Amino acid sequence: MYTQLNETLKTQLYKELEEKTKDFRLPKEGDLKKALKNQPVAVADSVVLYSSSIRANKHRSRRYKGGTASIYLSNSLGGEQKGTLVHTVGINGGMTFYKSIPLNNQHYLEKDLNEKIPKTVTLFTDEGYNFLWDRPNHRSVNHSKKSNDPRYNLSRERWVTKEGVSSNGAEARNNLLKQSFRSYGFLSCKWGQLALDEISFLGNVRFVPELKNLLSLGDSRNVGFGDYHCSKGDSPSPLFGHPVQSTLRVTVLIDASLPGRLSKSLLPMGRNHLALKTVRVN
Q1: Short-list 130, 136, 124, 135, CA closest to 41
Q2: What are phi and psi of 153, to 5 degrees?
Q3: Which of 1, 131, 205, 276 is deepest in the core (most CB within 10 A)?
Q4: Which pairs from 151-157 meet CB under 8 Å and 24+ separation?
């Protein structure tokens, strides 16, 4: 369910960004803050979740180093993927989408960006994205920049440049993602994308007034549940053992209350597949 809803949100966001930035160009030099006023700014970065441990690797050393190598076992053990490598793409002050990728290279990063962010949108990244030659509004920050002052090793501009370029928005999202996934202990990379879609959708709900109002029930006192009907203040139907502080099916709510584009993406699932995920509604 979360995957289908995220696809709908991603498609709609892409159209809105494309319309907003179709004639926008960043100045080649100087302060960018004035030029970016009322303009969406996208950020992107990658992060590793659950890298394969030394014990899982049977204390063998890896031939290759870096984030990608850390999610795979040693070649002598078959090279199976154990960890999850995530590509984070988001809009500062807006939605965020996560993608599980097998390799941290140009092919997968550029493909994911092209699916989510139009090429005219301002994009801030680190220097790992220097292969993006066809994005005129792409700017990067050097996290390893040295200081010109002999008293210091690294420059303050390794996080925010004088022009105002910063990928801190993506770094913050990665930090939040890692904190959230610690509660799982470990999650197989086989199911990693489903969990990423879930946390992405729950974070994006607040930017869609219709969804936010729906899931919080808004001003409505009534909850539709198939052929049954009950209100917050009344006695519950036989399906419930307590008043409606109960667990409600989000898919049922969306299917019953949203006649728009979101409900259309759920209808092909059929009535037998509405009970995929539950949330607590207070």
Answers
A1: 124
A2: -90, -50
A3: 1
A4: none
Degrees, nearest 5: CA angle 194-197-200: 150
166-221 tens-digit pLDDT: 999 999 999 999 888 888 777 888 888 998 999 999 889 888 887 777 777 666 66
* DSSP secondary structure code for residue 94 in this structure: S
Cβ atoms of 157 and 137 within 8 Å: the answer is no
Q: What is the pTM for the complete model shown?
A: 0.73
Give dist(CA 139, CA 199) in Å, integer.
28
**Contact of 101 with 108, CB cutoff 8 Å:** yes
Half-sphere exposure of residue 9: CA atoms within 13 angstroms, side-chain side: 27
Rounded to whole angstroms, the Cα distance separating 183 from 192 reads: 14
Q: What are phi and psi of 66, to 5 degrees?
A: 110, 175
- What does the block give as tokens for 236? 């519950």
CA distance 34 to 205: 29
Tokens at 168, concatenated = 């801190």
User: Given the DSSP bridges, would you call strands 96-101 and 122-126 parallel, antiparallel or unpaired?
Assistant: unpaired
